[in-house]
Amino acid sequence: MNHMPKRMKFGAFFAPFHSDKINPTLAIERDMELIEWLDKLSYDEAWIGEHHSGAYECIASPEVFIATVAERTRHIRLATGVSSLSYHHPLVLADRICQLDHQIRGRLTFGVGPGQLVADAYMMGINPKDLRRRMNESLTALVKLLSGETVTMQTDWFTLNEARCQILPYQANLDMAVASAISPTGARTAGEHGLGMISVAASSPEGFKQLANHWDICEDKAAEHGKSVSRRNWRIVTPFHIAETEEQAYKDLEFGLMDMMRYFKKFGGSAFPEAKSFKEAIEIWTTGGLGAFGVGVVGTPETMVAHIKKLQEQSGGFETFLALAHNAADFSATKKSYELFAREVMPHFQSSNDNRGASLDWAAQNADRFMEEYVGGINTAIAQHEQEMASKHSKVARNS
Predict the structure, then answer these.
(1) 217 and 151 in one domain?
(2) CA 219 to CA 382: how far, in whole Å?
C-alpha cells in the first residue's frame, strides 16, 4: 500500500552541534538566525534538543530557546527535540510545556526521549540503564496530566499526589512525539500511548534497515493498547549538506567537519572511529556514519531527492523529513544548503508545482490561438479608432 503524503513536511532537528572553540553566545544566536531563515524558506518545523554535557550540544533548555525564537518567527512549528524525561519531575515539566504552548499560541510540538548523553545521566546520579524505564514512567504520567487528568503515582524517583496541571495546553490535543533510534524502545512507547515517532537514526545502516520494522512495532503496540497511530505523525531525520555542485558541497565541509568528528570521537570513545584527515572524515561520515546520528548525505539537490525517495520506499511512507542540523559548513554555506533544498527538493514531494506545469503546457498548446485572438483584438481596436477619427474629420469638413 502506498502511504506517501501528497504534501510532505520538512524541518530541521537541532542538537545543536557547535565547536567548543566558538563563543557560546554567538552559537545560540546563530541557531536562532537559522530558524528565522527556515521560517522564511517555508520549512514546517524546527526541533530543539536538551543536553547538559560535552560542550558541543550547548542548549540546556529547549523551552527557553523556543520561547525566544517564537517571537522572531511567524509560521514554523517549534518542538522540544527532545525533552529528556528522565531528568525532570513530570508535573513540573508538564506545567512548563502548558505555559509554553500558550505563549506561542499552539505552535508547539512536545518531543520526548530518555536522554541521549550518558554523561548527563552520570552527573545527575542516574544509572544509564534506568533511562528508558524512567522515560516510560514519566510519559505515562505526562500523557494523563496534559489531557487534564488528576494523577496519583509512586515510583522510585518521583511521586505524584493528586497532581494536576493548573492550566492545560493551548492546543486541544497537544502534538507529541517519541524519539526512536535503533532499538525498538521508542517505537513501542509511541505505539503504547498513540503518539508520533521521530526516527533519529534513519540514515544509519542499522536504523535504515529497521525503519519498516519499527513502524510495524509501533502499530502493533498501539493496537494492543487500544490506541491508533498515523504515518502523518512520523518524522525521519538525516544529516546532509548540499550545494550547486557536488564538488562545492564537499569543499564547504572543510570548514568544520574535522572538528565535529573530533567531538564525536572524544565523547563516544572507542565506539567511534578516528579521522586523521579530512578525506577520512568524509569517508566515515558518508559511509558508516556517526552511530545514532546517521550517515551524512553530501551532494546536490538531486542527491537529496534520490535519498528521500529511498527513505520513503524503505519505510513505506512518512510525512515529515528533518535535516539533522550541524555546523560542518560555515554559516553562509549552511544557509545556502537549506535554501537549495527549499527551492529544488521540497517541490518534488509537495505537489506544489503540479498545476503550474499543467498551466504552462496548456498555455503553450493554445499560444497560437490566443495570439491570433489577441492580435485580432488589437487590429479591431485600431480599425475602430481609425473609423471614428475618419468620421470626425468628415463631420468637421461638412460643417466648415
Answers:
(1) yes
(2) 71
User: What average pLDDT values come out for the chain (400 residues) when binned by 10 residues?
Assistant: 80 94 96 98 98 93 98 98 97 98 98 94 97 97 98 98 98 96 93 97 93 97 97 97 98 96 84 89 92 90 98 97 96 98 97 86 86 83 86 74
DSSP 219-274: HHHHHHTT----GGGEEEEE-EEE-SSHHHHHHHGGGTHHHHHHHHHHHHGGGSPP
Determine contact, residues 3/34, Cβ cutoff 8 Å.
Answer: no
For residue 4, being part of any structural domain is answered with no
Q: Which domain covers residue 369, as residue numbers? A: 356-399
Please name the residue that has the C-alpha cell 532499538.
Answer: 183
The residues, any chain, with a CB within 8 Å of residue 119's CB and separated by 6 or more, are 52, 53, 54, 267
Give the span between the Cα atoms of 51 and 49, in whole angstroms. Answer: 7
How would you classify the pairing of strands 159-163 and 151-154?
antiparallel
- Report the pLDDT value the prediction gives residue 50, as an integer from 0 to 100: 97
How deeply is 224 buried, as exposed, middle or buried, from its count of CB atoms within 10 A (0-12, 13-18, 19+)? exposed
Q: How far apart are CA 46 and CA 32, in angstroms?
A: 10
User: Is the pTM of the predicted complex or chain greater than 0.90?
Assistant: yes
User: Is 2 domain-assigned?
Assistant: no
**Coil, strand or helix at 353:** coil
pLDDT confidence of residue 1 = 57
